[in-house]
Amino acid sequence: MDLPYRPVALGLLALAFSALVWQRAQAGGSHYFPPVSDPVVVEECGSCHLAFPPSMLPASSWKRMMSELKNHFGDDARVDAATATHISDYLMSNAGDTGGRRYSDKLLRGTSTSKAPLRITELERWVGEHREVPAWEWRHKDVRSKANCLACHSGAERGYYDDD
Amino acid sequence: MKSQAGLLLLIAVPAMASASALAAPREDLLAGYAAQAKQDDPGFAGFSAARGEAFHRRSFGRGKVDTPACTSCHADDPRAAGKTPAGKIIDPVALSASPSRYADPAKVRKWFGRNCKEVLGRACTAQEKGDWLSFMLSQ
């Protein structure tokens, strides 16, 4: 049997490429991180700052975060044991190297999970993406904190962190 | 007639009971603070919304640097929304503006616990909590 190898190969290539694009489009590009959907996690992790998407950090980071709530970036953010277990389970199963892997591949590139980084804003990729933001903009009264994603990313609460 | 009156009672009593159950958590909170305040100071003479208002606006500067006062995060006007250092909007603290507030005692305990430490650098006394809450309930 004579197979038309070249057209078939080209066809497959085109198919693979569009599948890749389609997957990206569905995920909203590399700047989409699904927002927290669990009401307990939204309440407990989203009162002082935006409830950061679990896919922005590896599971090791969330584990460490939850074990250090007494000094949570200077605040005592302890919760009762049952709530803590609930939050830990959610964060760790949706983390950037577990359930949320498909959203985090770029953000966590170059991040060592064994180091369990606590600050999203110290991830190599995050720093690179925000290099062009001038110091005065960080100090602006409507920004003030690098944890204030929403100040510049108006879609942050819906999971979109595109360039604005 | 008699059965009608009975029917009315059947409707009215549960309605009254549920109304008081809805109002009770805030009163229970205040009663609890009052009992503690009396224990702390036998001369305790009740709570004052005016004292609570002064407390709300006072700059303590004994806790965290960026939160010297309640109004560092909550608005100066309790009926307006506040904002945390990380930019999160906080619903108004006045009951009239946020009618669901202060109904869950565990939540009230949690936030007094955290916020007093961050603003005053210590736990609030029962007198302080009762005064502040009285102010917010009156607003």
What does this structure look like?
Chain A is mainly alpha-helical and 164 residues long. Chain A has one domain. Chain A has helices spanning 5-26, 39-45, 59-67, 81-93, 101-104, 124-129, 135-139. In chain A, helix 3 packs antiparallel against helix 4 (81-93). Chain A starts with a helix and ends in a 25-residue tail after the last helix. The model of chain A has no long low-confidence stretch (mean pLDDT 89). Helix content of chain B is 55%, strand content 3%. Chain B has a two-stranded antiparallel ribbon. In chain B, a hairpin with a 5-residue loop joins strand 1 and strand 2 (89-90). In chain B, helix 1 (2-40) packs across helix 4 (126-138). Chains A and B meet through loops of A and helix 3 of B.
Mean pLDDT of chain B: 88
Backbone shape of chain A: globular
In total, the number of domains of chain B comes to: 1
For this structure, the CATH topology of chain B is Cytochrome Bc1 Complex, Chain D, domain 2
CATH architecture of chain B: Orthogonal Bundle
Radius of gyration of chain B, Cα only, in angstroms?
19 Å
User: Cα distance, first to last residue of chain A?
Assistant: 56 Å
Give me the oligomer status: heterodimer
CATH superfamily of chain B: Cytochrome c-like domain
**Rounded Rg of chain A:** 19 Å
> How many strands, what sense, and barrel or not for the largest sheet of chain A?
none
Strand content of chain A: under 5%
Output the CATH class name of chain B: Mainly Alpha
- Helical segment count of chain A: 7
Percent range of helical residues of chain A: 40-55%
Element order of chain B: H for helix, E for strand:
HHEEHH
Distance between the termini of chain B: 45 Å
- Percent range for helical residues of chain B? 55-70%
Low-pLDDT residue intervals, each spanning 5 or more residues of chain B? 13-21
